[in-house]
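User: Please fill in residues for this 232-position structure.
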């Protein structure tokens, strides 16, 4: 797991450095500002394992993007967002369909993304976003229904340690990456993107004496963004 995380971080830093260190290219100086909104599909990687369905939540905020130059056919820039993001998990009990437990965790998240695009200045572009992301937990809540105690009594191997456990670490960090299409027009830029967030941090303590050795977010996000150019 640590080797994978280091490899992802290395690739991210290389991509983020492209817009800053490319030596040959046509300068752009395009700064754009706008809003974004979409839907999260969330799961948490627990060790020991907890069976889950995808938990749906909202993702919305503001976006700022700076295009620095066009390097051959690749448009290079950097993008930052400040979003309200709902994460968490929805537990699944195969033999107990009436028992339900959901934990919703609300974050302010800030992705720092390298933006690489291919296409026309006016018209359609294909783009890639990749970079580190941090988040700060605002609050969390849970919903529970059904005979949870009866289920646990009948099957003591079902993991419920996480149910009454307070969040230990409110600071979250990881890697975000996605791809999408952008339509550039005279009235603004319209983007559709699919993105995945791979959490590198654990929100429960994960030392040898702790119950969970892993408790990290994994989030698929589908979002739309509208940007208007402030400078070109």
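Assistant: Residues filled in for all 232 positions:
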């Amino acid at each position: 797991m640590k080797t994978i995380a280091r490899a992802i971080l290395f690739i991210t830093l290389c991509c983020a450095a492209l817009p800053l260190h490319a030596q040959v290219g046509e300068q752009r100086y395009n700064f754009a500002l706008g809003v974004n909104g979409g839907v999260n599909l969330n799961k948490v990687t627990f060790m020991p394992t907890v069976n889950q369905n995808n938990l749906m939540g909202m993702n919305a905020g503001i976006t700022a993007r700076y295009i620095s130059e066009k390097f051959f056919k690749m448009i290079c820039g950097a993008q930052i967002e400040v979003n309200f993001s709902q994460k968490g998990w929805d537990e699944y009990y195969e033999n107990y369909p009436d028992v339900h437990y959901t934990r919703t965790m609300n974050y302010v998240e800030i992705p720092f993304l390298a933006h690489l695009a291919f296409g026309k200045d006016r018209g359609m572009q294909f783009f890639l976003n990749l970079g580190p992301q941090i988040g700060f937990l605002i609050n969390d809540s849970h919903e529970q229904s059904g005979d949870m105690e009866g289920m646990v009594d009948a099957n003591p191997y079902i993991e419920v340690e996480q149910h009454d456990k307070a969040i230990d670490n409110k600071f979250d960090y990881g890697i975000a990456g996605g791809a999408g299409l952008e339509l550039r027009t005279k009235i603004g830029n319209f983007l559709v993107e699919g993105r995945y967030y791979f959490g590198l941090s654990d929100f429960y303590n994960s030392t040898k004496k702790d119950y969970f050795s892993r408790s990290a977010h994994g989030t698929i996000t589908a979002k739309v963004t509208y940007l208007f150019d402030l400078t070109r």
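For context: Residues 2-21 form the longest helix (20 residues).
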